[in-house]
Amino acid sequence: MNTFSTDWLSLREGVDHRSRNPALQQQVLSYLEQVGSVKNDPIHIIDLGSGTGSNLRALAPLIQHSQNWTLVDYDPLLLMAAREKLCAWADSVSDGAPHGHLDSNATRPVTLVKNNHEINVIFLQKDLAGDLQSVLSKPADLITAAAFFDLVAVGWLEQFCRALKTPLYTVLTYNGQETWLPVDPWDSKILEAFHHHQGSDKGFGSAAGPLALTTLEQLLRKEGFKVVTGSSPWVLGPNDSLLIQELAAGTAKAAAETTLVSNAIAQQWGESRAQSPKCEIGHDDLFARY
C-alpha cells in the first residue's frame, strides 16, 4: 500500500479543507445530526487511509455531538504524526497516561476536546489491500476517506462495495480534469502520461485513477445505496505557490516515469508549470447511504 510524506499531506491540507463540496458536506452533517439525536453514545466514524488525520480535523468541528473516530492507515509513522498533530490541534487532550510519565506508545488512543465536544480517537494500523473486512465489520455510523479511492483497483472497489453496510462519505477523489494557466503546448501529452501513471499499482493492484469515482458510484448504486456526488476542485492561485510547485514537480516526475514523454520535455514542463499563477485540479466528493 502506498504511503505519502507528512510534508506533502501538510502542504495540501488547507486546500483540501476549503475545496470540499459544501452542499454535499451539509447533507452528511444533517445525516449525522439525525444519528446523534437518537443515540446516547458518541457518533462513530471510521476514516480509511487517514494519513495524519486531516479528514478528522475538517469534519469533526462541524459535528455538534461527541464522537469516536477510528483512523486507519498502513503507515505507522503517519499514524504517529496524526496523533501528534491532533493533540496540537485540540483545545485540550487526555491520553490516560500517568501524570508526569512520557507516553511510550505513540499511537495509543487519545481523547480530545474541540469546540466543547469530546472526540475519542483510536489509531489502527491495517493494510487495507488485504484486510478490509475486519475494518468494515466494525460498528460505525459513517465510513469516510479523503483522496483515497483513486489509489485502489477496480477489483478492490468491487470487494469494498459488496462488504459496505454503512453510509460512506468520501472527498477529493481525483477525476482527471486539469487546467493550467497559461496554456502550454505540452499540457495534453503530460496529462495523458500522468493519467497512465495514475493507473499504476499503488499497493492494491492497477489503480482506478481518474475513473475511480464514477466506478464507485455505479457499484454503490448496484448494491442499493442512494448516491449523491459533487465537484470539489482544487482552485489554486498565487497564495498556493508552494503547492503549485510541488504539484508541477510531482506531475512531471510521474509523466517521465511512463516514458510516454521524454525526461527533457517533462522537466521543461515541470519547471515552467512551477511558475504558473493558477491551476485547477478536478476532484469529486460522494455521499452514499441506504
Word description of this protein:
By secondary structure, the chain is α/β, with parallel strands linked by helices. It has one domain (6-180, 204-235, 279-289): 3-Layer(aba) Sandwich (Rossmann fold), CATH 3.40.50. Helix content is 40%, strand content 24%. The chain contains 10 helices and 10 strands. Strands 1, 2, 3, 4, 5, 6, 7, 8, 9 and 10 form a 10-stranded mixed β-sheet that branches. Helix 6 (154-163) links the parallel strand 6 and strand 7 (168-181). Helix 6 runs parallel beside helix 8 (212-222) and helix 9 packs antiparallel against helix 10. The longest helix is centred in the N-terminal third of the chain and has 17 residues, at 22-38. The protein is globular and about 60 Å long. The two termini are 30 Å apart. Mean pLDDT is 94; it is low at 98-104. This is SAM-dependent methyltransferase. It comes from Polynucleobacter arcticus.
Brief sketch in words of this structure:
This protein has 290 residues and is an alpha/beta fold.
When the domains are counted, the total is 1
Q: Estimate the helix proportion, in percent.
A: 40-55%
Shape field: globular
The number of distinct β-strands equals 10
Total number of helices: 10
The proportion of strand residues reads: 15-25%
**Biggest β-sheet strands, sense, barrel:** 10 strands, mixed
Q: Going by CATH, what is the homologous superfamily?
A: Vaccinia Virus protein VP39
Which oligomeric state applies?
A: single chain
Distance between the termini: 30 Å
How would you state the average pLDDT, rounded? 94
> What structural class results from the helix and strand content?
alpha/beta
The CATH C-level name is Alpha Beta
**Second-tier CATH architecture:** 3-Layer(aba) Sandwich
CATH topology: the name is Rossmann fold
Order of helices and strands: HHEHEHEEEHEHEHHEEHHE
- Report the uncertain regions: 98-104
- Write down the Rg: 19 Å
Protein name: SAM-dependent methyltransferase
GO biological process, one term: methylation
Keywords: Methyltransferase, Transferase
GO molecular function: methyltransferase activity
